[in-house]
Amino acid sequence: MKTQKKPIWKRLKVNNRLPRLFLTLSGIVHPKILAKFGTLKKNLAKAGIKTYFKIYMKMTAFTLLLMAAITFTISFPLLLHSNITIIHALAFSILTSLSAGSISIGIWYLYPILVASSRKRNIEVNLPLIANFMAVLASAGMPPEGIFTALAEVGEEFSISKEVAGIIRDIKLMGLDLHTALKKASERSPSNKFAAMIDGVVTTIHMGGDLASYLREQANKYKRERMLSLRQFLDNLSVIAEAYVTFLVAAPLMLIVMLSVLSFIGTEVTLINLDPRILLNILATIILPIGISMLILAVEFLSPKR
Asked: Are 22 and 55 in contact (CB under 8 A)?
């Protein structure tokens, strides 16, 4: 006699009702469909999002259906009151609901990528400090496992608390050896540079090399890369400063003087079929704020993290 298989939420000991609901319903999703979202599963691990993959997929599907239903319920009655036929209203409502559902899927899919990208930047900024910290401990004769244990205590300051906590968890709770735990941490890491350093640590330990010397070399390499990125930022900042002076200081002043003169001459004079006073208002209230905002965003995007 076959024993009845326990529900998945019981096997995983999930007590929260909402995740339990999604886990129960996730059995409807065929494994072949889940296999096509392997990239999303990896992005969840790299982002450090502690959500079961099937729950995340079911939440995505649930949001898709919910957004599509809400959009259709709102858009169809509104379109019926306009001067279009029922068929056109139905078609437009279906198209709008599908668009809303697609947007919701895109948000759920892009969220782990954005989180992983943010964590990657924070890790790579601190890589010189991380490698230097590990090199000091290795020079003092501390074993590799002790180095990562000490690193876990300051992991929050270096933005690698999740990575190091995963290594310690795999060693102490899962019973894995250090090499296997480091390999898994390398696969989960959102930063390719940090993953490469971890792989180098594994190789150095396995080959019996000088770990302290390797980590010092990595620290110096990351320092040089950091200085290079700062120089590139200064070059880009000079270009942005020239664009600011040219397009948002000199050109607006020239246009303001020209439009003011045209406005003083009389309303008969127009420019691109618009009154000069209207163009002056557009320049002052729309064009200049948008231009300055774009430059601020460019500086924020290009500036290296501290």
From this structure: yes
Structural domain for 97, as ranges? 8-120
AA letter at 181: A
Q: Which two tokens stand for residue 192?
A: 């390719």
Task: Give me the phi and psi of 27, to 5 degrees please.
Answer: -65, -20
CA-wise closest residue to 158 among 305, 3, 2, 4:
305
Q: Which pLDDT does position 117 carry in this prediction? A: 86
Residue 250 burial (CB < 10 Å; 0-12/13-18/19+)?
exposed
Cβ atoms of residues 145 and 172 within 8 Å: no
Show which of 55, 87, 120 is a domain's final residue: 120
What tens digit of pLDDT does each residue of 23-80 get? 555 455 566 666 677 788 888 888 888 787 877 887 888 888 888 889 888 888 888 7
Question: Taking 80 as the threshold, does the pLDDT of residue 4 lie above it?
Answer: no
- Final residue of a structural domain among 179, 209, 239: 209
What are the CA-CA distances from residue 5 to residues 12, 23, 30, 54, 191 (Å)? Answer: 13, 15, 18, 18, 40
Number of domains into which the chain is organized: 3
* pLDDT confidence band for 9 (50 / 70 / 90): very low
